């Protein structure tokens, strides 16, 4: 058991201050009683009650967050503290003054009333400060989580392997083929701009989406040479339909990274869109090595992110489905309602 | 080797980058002859064995076999008696294995885009190594130590949830067999499956070995080959054959398992 003595001392001082306030109030309402009587009773009862509750809580199974006993244990401890502290405090004060409170019905009722009121307000004070510090700690943790998630998302989008390999190719082209280098640089700029903007802009048109995919696939074509072939099929009447920004990007990246890159001879990627009624269906199909046998890869960060964005935007109405292609490769199909 | 021109092999799957490295090397080391340029790990092993170059430039991310795995396989199949193991240089786009740790050691590291000044440093270092090459197994030993470290770092990066495995679940037909992991003699990678051998039984599972490894207690299970992980307590004896290769004889199985050079250090008399 580890006890934080600094906190305990701070709490003790708060209890003392509280007891002094109670005795001062008492004296104000009945100045005919000597101040000393109220002071001693209030201090002894207060300290005994606090000691039983604050030290007693270490002997109960307590919640990791608040450090306080959970459920009924908490209530039982407070009750025990109030009754025990009252008895001990009265006994101590009685022996201090050399009389007995128990024989005087009036004094006893009076003390019980004060004790109840004082305990209730002290209890409320300690409860609310503990709760506030717990909430503050939770808020800090939540903020940290959100920051980590954002950082991870950015690192996935600006995949360092992709970035540095692209730059290495660019460096090679500058000397040998300046025109192609310029074209590649333009595509890299468009890709980076879109990636960074995606966190601010929540949706854009399908034609914008396909343009960004073309930028990315062109960059990859320079790198992979004839090992990568691709087709983007978008009918003109679907071009203006809205789509969450860069929704398909992680799927195309997955196809390249897990489907085509491991394959010595490479392969092809097809991205297409079609609409039936009010449902828009988008597909990313590759001729890569296919889905891994185990299911771990299906919960990768990219796919999870697409799934979560779909769910957040369209709720239950959106679906996403991974399936093997009979001739080898993977097909990802996603659909969501699209009215316009 | 001092009378003939030094030779090198480049393994890089991106054609432009392979070409650039070749051009840069021509500036930094005019005498160096590039005997082959390949685009995947398996070809790298095969071509390296055929040409037996002095220097290898291996990209780490390659289709088929990664650069690290190709180097490990090559270290195992290299005819060490007739030809010293080549100087190894890994080329990678992103520093994920703490590159600094590997400077000035047996295995060198280049970051893409490769820059002329850095390449010159590597070339100087390799020239020194080649000049003082004793023709013994010592450089191979240093290379093996570093390769093991790199492979371990790679496995560690892949391990997301390393909860220790207690039961192997293997399906056959309509059944799923539950095999306590302590009953397993060894795991062996076989094409798309992993064979799980117990005394008297053989099961097939689909979880790849590299995903299985982080979930195994490495005090209990030893990797002895790229595709073999064996329960150490199941090993009865280790034999060295005439070619210097190590073989394991198990207690409860007639099969013999070969130990690759990469893991031969596990077996030393006390």
Could you explain the architecture of this structure?
The complex is a heterodimer of chains A (340) and B (270). Chain A has 340 residues and is of the alpha+beta class. Chain A folds into 2 domains: 141 residues, no CATH class; 178 residues, Histidine kinase-like ATPase, C-terminal domain (Heat Shock Protein 90), CATH 3.30.565. Chain A has 9 helices and 7 strands; from the N terminus they run H-H-H-H-H-H-E-H-E-E-H-E-E-H-E-E. In chain A, the strands form 2 sheets. Chain A has a 5-stranded mixed β-sheet with strand order 2-4-5-7-6, with helices on one face. In chain A, strands 1-3 form a two-stranded antiparallel ribbon. The longest helix of chain A has 53 residues. The mean pLDDT of chain A is 85. Chain B has 2 domains: 152 residues, Rossmann fold (3-Layer(aba) Sandwich), CATH 3.40.50.2300; 100 residues, LytTr DNA-binding domain (OB fold (Dihydrolipoamide Acetyltransferase, E2P), Beta Barrel). In chain B, the strands form 4 sheets. In chain B, strands 2-1-3-4-5 form a 5-stranded parallel β-sheet, with helices on both faces. Chain B has a 5-stranded antiparallel β-sheet with strand order 10-9-8-12-11, with no helix packed on it. Chain B is elongated.
């Amino acid at each position: 058991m580890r006890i934080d003595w600094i906190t305990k001392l701070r709490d003790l001082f708060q209890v003392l201050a509280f007891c002094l306030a109670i005795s001062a109030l008492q004296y104000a309402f009945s100045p005919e009683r000597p101040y000393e009587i109220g002071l001693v009773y209030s201090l002894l009862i207060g300290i005994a009650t606090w000691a039983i509750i604050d030290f007693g809580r270490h002997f109960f199974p307590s919640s990791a967050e608040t450090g306080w006993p959970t459920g009924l244990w908490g209530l039982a401890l407070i009750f025990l503290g109030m009754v025990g502290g009252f008895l001990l405090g009265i006994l101590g004060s009685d022996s201090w003054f050399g009389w007995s409170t128990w024989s005087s019905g009036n004094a006893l009722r009076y003390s019980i009333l004060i004790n109840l009121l004082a305990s209730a307000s002290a209890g409320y004070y300690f409860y609310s400060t503990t709760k506030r510090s717990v909430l503050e700690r939770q808020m800090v943790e939540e903020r940290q989580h959100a920051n980590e998630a954002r950082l991870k998302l950015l690192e996935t989008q600006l995949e360092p392997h992709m970035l540095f390999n692209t730059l290495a190719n660019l460096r090679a082209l500058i000397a040998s083929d300046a025109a192609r280098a310029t074209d590649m640089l333009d595509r890299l700029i468009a890709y980076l701009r879109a990636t960074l903007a995606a966190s601010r802009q929540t949706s854009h048109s399908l034609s914008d989406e396909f343009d960004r995919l073309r930028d990315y696939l062109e960059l990859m074509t320079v790198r992979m040479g004839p090992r990568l072939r691709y087709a983007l099929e978008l009918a003109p009447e679907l071009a203006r339909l809205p789509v969450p920004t860069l929704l398909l990007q992680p799927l195309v990246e997955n196809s390249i990274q897990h489907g085509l890159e491991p394959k010595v001879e490479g392969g092809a990627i097809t991205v297409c869109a079609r609409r039936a009624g009010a449902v828009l269906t988008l597909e990313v199909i590759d001729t890569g090595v296919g889905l891994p046998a185990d299911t771990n890869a299906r919960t990768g960060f990219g796919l999870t992110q697409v799934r979560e964005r779909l769910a957040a935007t369209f709720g239950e109405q959106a679906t996403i489905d991974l399936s093997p292609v009979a001739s080898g490769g993977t097909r990802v199909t996603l659909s969501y309602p699209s009215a316009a | 080797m001092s009378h003939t021109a030094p030779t090198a092999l480049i393994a890089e799957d991106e054609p432009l980058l392979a070409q650039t490295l070749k051009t840069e090397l021509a500036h930094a080391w005019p005498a160096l002859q590039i005997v082959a340029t390949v685009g995947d790990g398996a070809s790298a092993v095969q071509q390296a064995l055929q040409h037996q170059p002095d220097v290898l430039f291996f990209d780490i991310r390659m289709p088929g076999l990664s650069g690290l795995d190709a180097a490990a396989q090559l270290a195992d199949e290299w005819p060490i008696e007739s030809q010293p193991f080549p100087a190894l240089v890994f080329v990678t786009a992103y520093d994920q294995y703490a590159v600094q740790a590997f400077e000035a050691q047996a295995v060198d590291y280049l970051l893409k885009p490769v820059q002329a000044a850095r390449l010159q440093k590597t070339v100087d270092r390799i020239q020194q190594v080649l000049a003082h090459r004793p023709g013994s197994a010592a450089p191979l030993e240093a290379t093996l130590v570093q390769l093991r470290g790199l492979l371990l770092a790679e496995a560690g990066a892949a391990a997301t949830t390393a909860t220790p495995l207690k039961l192997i679940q293997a399906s056959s037909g309509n059944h799923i067999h539950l095999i306590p992991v302590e009953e397993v003699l060894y795991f062996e990678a076989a094409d798309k499956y992993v064979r799980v051998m117990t005394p008297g039984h053989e099961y097939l599972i689909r979880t790849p070995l590299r995903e299985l490894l982080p979930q195994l207690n490495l005090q209990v299970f030893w990797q002895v080959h790229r595709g073999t992980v064996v329960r150490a307590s199941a090993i009865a004896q280790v034999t060295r054959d005439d070619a210097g290769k190590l073989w394991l004889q198990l207690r409860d199985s007639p099969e013999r398992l070969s130990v690759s050079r990469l893991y031969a250090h596990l077996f030393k008399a006390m």
